[in-house]
Amino acid sequence: MKLQRVLQYAQFLLKETVETGDIVVDATAGNGYDTTFLAQLVGENGHVFAFDVQQQAIESTNKRLTEVGMANRVSTILDGHENVAQYVQQPISAAIFNLGYLPGSEHQIITKPNTTLQAIESLLKLLKVGGMIVLVVYYGHEGGKEERDQVIEYVSNLPQKKVHVLRYEFINQKNDPPFIIALEKVAEITNK
Ligand SMILES: C[S@@+](CC[C@H](N)C(=O)[O-])C[C@H]1O[C@@H](n2cnc3c(N)ncnc32)[C@H](O)[C@@H]1O
C-alpha cells in the first residue's frame, strides 16, 4: 500500500518533525500510545508533556511509560489541554491530539469544541516555526460532528502565510473513519 493509513501518517508527520532533545505535547494521553511514541522520538534529553482529564488515562499512560523505561522524560498532567500554557512555557516542536473518547472507558468523557480550540490556540503560540500540530479527528460519537465542524472552521481561517493546514482523509470509507488535520507553523504568529 502506498497511501499511509491515518494513524501511520500521523506518526510519520511527528517523526519528520521531532528531533532528539525537543519538547513536545500529547494533548490527549489516553492509554499513552502516542505519549510513548513521542517519548521515543525526543530521546533521553527531550521532554513530553502529556495531558488528560481522566485519572484512569494518566495511570495507564504512567504504567506504559514505566514498562518501557521512559517515565523520566514525560510529565503526565491530570488537567485539561486548554490549560497547557500553565504547564509549558518552553517552545515546542510538536503536539498531537486524538479527539473523541478513550477506548474502553466511559464514552461521556470526550474532547469538546471550546477546550480543543483553546488548546490549539495556545499550542500554536508555543510552537516553534517549523513545528507541527497533528489532530486525529474521530467524530462518530455523540457530539463528535459538532467538534469536527468547529475545528475545521477554526483551522480553515488560520492565516496561510503563518500556518499551512492539511486535511488527510480517505473519503470512501464507511462508519465515520478518523481523519487528520495537520498544522505546520511556517512563520511567527503575532496578534496583528
Ligand atoms: C481518543 S482518546 C486519546 C487516545 C490516546 N491518544 C491513546 O493513545 O490511547 C481522547 C482522550 O482525551 C481526553 N480528554 C477529554 N477532554 C480533554 C481535555 N480537555 N484535556 C485533555 N484530555 C482530554 C479523554 O479523557 C481521552 O482519554
Spatial arrangement of strands, main beta sheet: 3-2-1-4-5-7-6
User: What hetero molecules are bound to the protein chains?
Assistant: S-adenosylmethionine
The CATH class name reads Alpha Beta
> Total number of helical segments?
6
- What is the ordering of alpha helices and beta strands? HEHEHEHEHEHEE
What is the residue-mean pLDDT, rounded to a whole number? 96
What proportion of the residues form beta strands (DSSP E)?
A: 15-25%
* Overall number of domains: 1
| Cα separation of the termini | 44 Å
Classification by helices and strands:
alpha/beta
CATH architecture term: 3-Layer(aba) Sandwich
What's the shape? Answer: globular
Number of strands: 7
CATH homologous superfamily grouping: Vaccinia Virus protein VP39
Quote the CATH topology: Rossmann fold
Helix content: 25-40%
Largest sheet: 7 strands, mixed
Describe the structure.
The structure is a single chain. This protein has a single domain, classed as Vaccinia Virus protein VP39 (Rossmann fold). The protein contains 6 helices and 7 strands, in the order αβαβαβαβαβαββ. The chain has helices spanning 6-17, 33-42, 55-67, 84-87, 113-126, 144-156; strands at 23-26, 47-52, 74-78, 92-99, 127-137, 163-168, 179-185. A 7-stranded mixed β-sheet has the order 3-2-1-4-5-7-6, sandwiched between helices. α5 links the parallel β4 (92-99) and β5. α5 packs parallel to α6. S-adenosylmethionine binds at residues 27-28, 30-31, 33-34, 51-54, 57, 80-82, 98, 100-102, 109, 111, 115.
